[in-house]
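quick one before i forget lol
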Amino acid sequence: MSVKRPRIAIIGGGISGLAAANRLLELSAARAVKPELTLIEARERAGGVINTLRSDDLLIETGPDAFISAKPWAVALAQRLGLEDRLIRTNPQHRRSFIVREGRLRPIPQGFHLLAPIRLWPFFASDIISWPGKARMALDLLLPRPRAKEDESLASFVRRRFGREALERIAQPLIGGIYTADPERLSLKATMPFLLEMEREHRSLILAMRKRGQANGAASGARYDLFISFQDGMQTIVERLVERLPQNAIRLRTEACGLRFDAPKQQWQIMTTRGTIFADAICLALPAPQAARVLGELDGELAADLRSITYASAATINLAYRRAAIRHPLDGFGFVVPAIERRAIIACTFSSVKFAGRAPEGVALLRAFVGGALQSEKLALDDDELLELTRHDLEELLAIESAPIFAHVARLPHSMPQYQLGHLDLIERVRRRLSAYPSLQLAGNAYEGVGIPDCIRSGESAAERILEYLSQQMGS
């Protein structure tokens, strides 16, 4: 293929597609390959689920409100974009969270990491788990190493190590909530393989976490000092990535409908709602079901595998209250709600406590979550009904005595892929099918990680593979 300026199309303008476009521009600046770039996005704006809104002095995140710095790709990208001085970490005060039990917020004990207590006394003093439940969890110290399994669900793993109550009261809301997933179907190997590695190496998870020093004595649950956002909200990184695109490179309100590959010409045809686009290479950065629809005519088996990746939907409800109307001290970053509590909401973030600059003095900004794999029926309700249910739960759990002064409901349909049992085998099949099309790469949260850093890595890796392929073709 003798192409002086190869044409590269990115289908999907979420964070994965934007990261891919940016990486193509970065790498091509230092290479002989100078691509002509086109980014196709079906909606009216780029950024996908990342969306920051302003209302007076409130900063509203309708999608993700932060990312984790332990996975370096988001921080590294922010630095290369010149945004390092706009990064902020969580409030150094109140770095803890709560779990609801019997209608009350119970603090996660200090030194409790994911599933296991590192510091025993705070755990035994806690009332999140009953005394019989604590005794069953302590059996983790005595259980033998298990026989190797093909794949295991989060629910099976936790019941086996710590018992049923630990699953219902801790694992389901904390870990299952990260993926808005059903723990009975969530593949541990695909989501948290380090827990299996700990078990194999140390036998006991409690001993393993103590030996590896994974608990932070000053915080409970997650390492809150690792959570990062931007001073002006997550939209900051989207706007900077869009700014860096060449003029007229992005085509909004343009939906890809199908792909064809002309083997003799080594050229792609992208059928869209606004005509056909030709490309020498493609990064397909769409959710798996949409990618399957686009690929259906090209490769039925690949499309079928992608179609089998299911998604959960959620809604975020941002509410602002006069701080004096909330009797709870809000001395943490938020809480999660076990499904066994039978509440409408599955979690709530105290946004104005977690990050600075989210609400003016005297106002508390709360962000509740509804839906997920275990409560998908809630999303059939209209916005007013969702708001009413959310207010009812928050008023009971936080002792709120008046109506909110601001409310906003945002729906995130089919936004969270479900890494179910067998997910890694499925992704391996997808890779094998995709190897027949070296100028076509997939990116997104459906494959090897659901967080913002994972999406950025996915997009950047796809861009690197595309440029490597084009360089080889131009050199041949």
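fyi The chain has 16 helices and 22 strands.
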